[in-house]
Amino acid sequence: MTTWRVAPAGARVLIGGMFVNRLGGFVQVFMVLYLTGLGFSATQTSAALGAYGAGSVAGVLVGGRLCDRIGGRATIVGSMVLSSVLLPPVPYLHTFPVLLPVLALQAAAGQAYRPAAADLLSRMLPPDRQVMIFAMYRLAINLGAAAAPLLGAALIAGSYTLLFFTEAAVGLAYAAVVARYVPRDDHRPAPTRSARGTGGYRPLLADRRYLLLLFAMLTSTLVYVQYLSALPLAVRDRGLSPTVYAVLITVNGLVVVAFELPVTRFTQRCRVRPVVALGSALTCLGMAMYGPSWGVAGLLAGTVVWSFGEAVSAPTLFLAYPAQAGPPELRGRYLGAANAMYGLGAALGPVLAVAAWGHFGAALWWWSGVAGLVAVPAAWAGVRPGARGDASRVDRGG
Predict the structure, then answer these.
(1) d(Cα 247, Cα 243) in Å, to the nearest integer?
(2) How does DSSP classify residue 192?
């Protein structure tokens, strides 16, 4: 593809390394099995998942700030090294009050690289290539994450200790590759008057339009992650086999892998507003389609719709537009805030969905449609008028 051919070597290293890094990302996938296998209760396991999620959200926020301060390359290297150092002790920590903060800190360190990687990619590619390069970045993450459980299961056959040490080794290898092949970027742009004198997220919080977009990100993510919690309950309650749920998840992966890059060839030339609004609408509509009792065919149709919504808007909504929405010296923080909204939604969504399922049952899916009525106008209003996928017309006025 043209974008891949013109991408500098540093961008290719980041994307290729991200595939390997996610291929070695086992711990989060097997955390529940590991903790319950140690004899921890369901309440303790839930608390550990909550701490891990909170650490992830804090990590991307800190990572965004560090990226603006010391540069993306240094942030990625520091993130990978610290998270790798924290992993090997985990299998030797069997006391819950000790294990809990280590897991939270490891999650924070392990997620801090995300805004930094996106920041680096946005600086390496011209504006008209950024939506496509972020689609490739997402493809690398998705492919690695899809294969990681299989590799992790093979390692667990040996021991969980091998699992933790392998992920640590992969993280250190990624840090070494980034340090060796990604150019230095520690010369940050001089801060604008509005950002001068503030060391955190205060300038971003003054961008009320972007706060609307963050709200839309959180709302659509809360709906999106229902496939991890409410959907398996829906499949079970309809008397269907767990295989049906596995097929639905596979369909999601196939749709995203098959269509995200081709769709992005078109959306990168479009205005941002209709792209993010359409993606949010399709996500909420697809989930709402699970409401009627249409059988397996209806479940498949709904899955295709929300999966296509992910393919349409995710590269623009969570990566390309946040990289261009604010001043250059705040880019890491804008990306960190976007990643934090996804992390917060991913942490809260399954908990809220399971609780709501216990009270409302299948009526939960109709609330997904209601969420769309909120998320779509918020996404539209949260994007500056005239902003395009190629970032050629981003009005940075309030």
Answers:
(1) 6
(2) P
